[in-house]
Recover the amino acids of this structure.
């Protein structure tokens, strides 16, 4: 969920003798015009997966990437990078790659993260730029051989991460059969909404830590290798209801409806009402945020990336704000507040979700 060029992950650890890092340094030397040997790699940390990123010269042009083949699909990364470039979207150039070893050289987009650049003064212009880039991706033609489907089975597997990792493993709450059935009903509703809306390219992590402003002030997009073909509002809600950066709800809705107008004009979606579009936006956002509660818990408990817990209160806020808007979701909101919230409040990472993310 987090880009390598976001604030460094303090939980990233390496073994005393990092054989992959040594092998990567040798590989970089062989695939560049550098003559110094061995090249010294300087870590930029890791992302939410298992990829690690290194700079090796200053000023830098390329990043060295360690993408272990056991967990990372380098061929898919290369294919999606080409696909995005064909849509006119700035993805990193990749001058060298070895999918067998899981080593890459990728263009270094620098450190001007959208996350840091977006302020109350710059937000509207930056978000319009990010939404225009999203329109370019949403205009793309489906390539089913390249881009997997965001189907019901995958949506359900993601939602079940919440039940297993956030509810069960982090909070230690055992679900009863009745509660399982309540969640099953909710999950079916969210899946139905996701599948009923127009299907487009989905970056899947289109947010402020995966967008960078380049030297010419164009927008660079990274961390796209998990792209799918799914609901049109998924990336929009990832951007506007960002797990790391919150904007006022009325501003978010204005941006979302502005995107609706542009998407209708571009022929990406039919002329749906504002209410229908916001329902798509809300429910697919709820699917994402329920999933993220589970993913952030798993990143801490399984991968020892404890920093993600600090972002849970904002994700809880998004989750409950949406669930409380819709009568058919009220049972879930009430259950969350009655059963899960008291357990969350006992955790060291917890802060009042009602003000989480306020600037």
């Amino acid at each position: 969920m987090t880009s390598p060029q976001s604030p460094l992950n303090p939980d990233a650890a390496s073994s005393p003798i990092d054989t992959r890092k040594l092998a990567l340094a040798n590989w970089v030397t062989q695939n560049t015009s550098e003559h110094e040997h061995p090249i010294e790699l300087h870590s930029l940390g890791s992302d939410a997966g298992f990829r690690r990123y290194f700079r090796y010269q200053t000023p830098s042009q390329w990043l060295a990437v360690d993408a272990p083949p056991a967990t990372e699909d380098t061929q898919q990364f290369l294919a999606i990078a080409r696909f995005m470039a064909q849509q006119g979207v700035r993805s990193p150039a990749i001058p060298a790659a070895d999918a067998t070893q899981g080593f890459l050289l990728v263009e270094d987009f620098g450190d001007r993260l959208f996350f840091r650049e977006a302020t109350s003064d710059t937000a509207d212009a930056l978000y319009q730029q990010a939404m225009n880039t999203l329109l370019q991706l949403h205009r793309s033609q489906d390539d089913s051989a390249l881009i997997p489907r965001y189907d019901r089975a995958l949506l359900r597997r993601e939602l079940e991460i919440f039940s297993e990792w956030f509810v069960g493993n982090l909070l230690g709450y055992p679900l009863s059969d009745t509660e399982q059935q309540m969640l099953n009903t909710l999950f079916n509703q969210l899946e139905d909404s996701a599948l009923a809306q127009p299907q487009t390219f989905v970056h899947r992590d289109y947010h402020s830590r995966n967008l960078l402003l380049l030297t010419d002030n164009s927008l660079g997009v990274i961390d796209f290798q998990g792209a799918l073909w799914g609901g049109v509002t998924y990336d929009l809600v990832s951007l506007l209801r960002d797990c790391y950066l919150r904007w006022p709800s009325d501003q978010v809705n204005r941006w979302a409806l502005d995107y609706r107008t542009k998407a209708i004009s571009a022929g990406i979606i039919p002329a749906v009402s504002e209410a229908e579009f916001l329902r798509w936006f809300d429910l697919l956002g709820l699917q994402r945020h329920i999933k993220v509660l589970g993913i952030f818990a798993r990143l801490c408990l399984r991968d020892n990336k404890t920093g993600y817990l600090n972002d849970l209160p904002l994700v809880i806020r998004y989750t409950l704000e949406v669930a409380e808007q819709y009568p058919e979701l009220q049972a879930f909101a009430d259950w969350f507040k009655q059963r899960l919230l008291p357990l969350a409040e006992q955790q060291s990472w917890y802060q009042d979700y009602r003000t989480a993310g306020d600037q």
